Automatic annotation (TrEMBL):
Coiled coil: none
Flavoprotein keyword on record: yes
Residues annotated as the enzyme's active site: 99 (proton donor)
HAMAP family per record: DusA_subfam
PANTHER family named in the record: FMN-LINKED OXIDOREDUCTASES SUPERFAMILY PROTEIN
Marked site: Interacts with tRNA: 96, 182, 185, 299, 302
Protein name: tRNA-dihydrouridine(20/20a) synthase
Catalytic activity annotation: 5,6-dihydrouridine(20a) in tRNA + NADP(+) = uridine(20a) in tRNA + NADPH + H(+); 5,6-dihydrouridine(20) in tRNA + NADP(+) = uridine(20) in tRNA + NADPH + H(+); 5,6-dihydrouridine(20) in tRNA + NAD(+) = uridine(20) in tRNA + NADH + H(+); 5,6-dihydrouridine(20a) in tRNA + NAD(+) = uridine(20a) in tRNA + NADH + H(+)
Molecular-function GO term, any one: oxidoreductase activity
Family from the record: Belongs to the dus family.
Encoding gene, per UniProt annotation: dusA
UniProt: FMN binding residues: 16-18, 69, 138, 170, 210-212, 232-233
Keywords, sorted A to Z: Flavoprotein, FMN, NADP, Oxidoreductase, RNA-binding, tRNA processing, tRNA-binding
Amino acid sequence: MTESQKHSPWRMSVAPMMDWTDRHCRYLHRLLTRHTLLYTEMVTTGALIHGDVARHLRFNDEEHPVALQLGGSEPADLAQCAKLAQEWSYDEVNLNCGCPSERVQRGAFGACLMNEKDLVADCVKAMRDVVDIPVTVKHRIGIDKVESYDFVRDFIGTVADAGCEVFIVHARNAWLKGLSPKENREIPPLRYDVVAQLKRDFPELTIAINGGIADDETAAAQLAQVDGVMVGREAYHNPWWLARWDALYYGDVASDATRESVEEEMVRYMEREAAAHGTHWYSIARHMLGLRQGMPGARRWRQVWSDHRLKTLPPREVMQLARTKPGRPVEDAELASV
């Protein structure tokens, strides 16, 4: 591992995931890894221009490095929102050219933008003209069932000419019709070789890979061919995996965190959020339910933290209940019925 690889912001990252990677989720992930780049959920330009900016952009200082992902296709609107990202101290702004959902398509952005590479180039240039932070693009390797390598190569070439230097490539096609977003993450075949070829053809660019990466063996194999790995659902469902990343992928000392210390820090965060913003702990706790995955007692611990009947209790009491032996003070039979 070279020094530049150790310190690349894109060496390891957690993907933007709708309804999941909010600021509470990112706070948990930052407790586990100091260096990994964290992405927001996609925020549309319309939501920022016409909505509550603070609600969409507020994040915790501890989350750095953190990137804002934008959804949109109007260069002027994206430029305005990129300026907001910089003003709010995000470390990067990313353009979504990979989401295949019909709702996103109706807004004329997401994966369908890959069919309009010149427009994407205009969007990137408009953002780069008004900010100093990196402007990056996340996209697929193709659209529908067309598997021409030339398509994605020309897309990257055109957008790179507009000044984009970092591409996060989901190694699947996006099927714009006939598949749900979930099916689009599972049915189109993964083609890691296409992403490796892109890196060979564009050695001067930073190319990171996304899609189906769920273990260290796969991540290490990809890092031997491209510049970075973006992990999606496995990072959410099994967050403890992230505790190994600083040592494995950045050459840093291993984290001394334990699952218990992370749970304790999350309870402190819940208390802080309640005092500062009136946030209920229940909306934060949902992000840490995978923390004890694979450990003895994980199912009961998860049931306690997700039990709606305990919502009236302060989070510190819920933590104590989750750590008690089965049967007391919350009966297992009751929890099993939740």
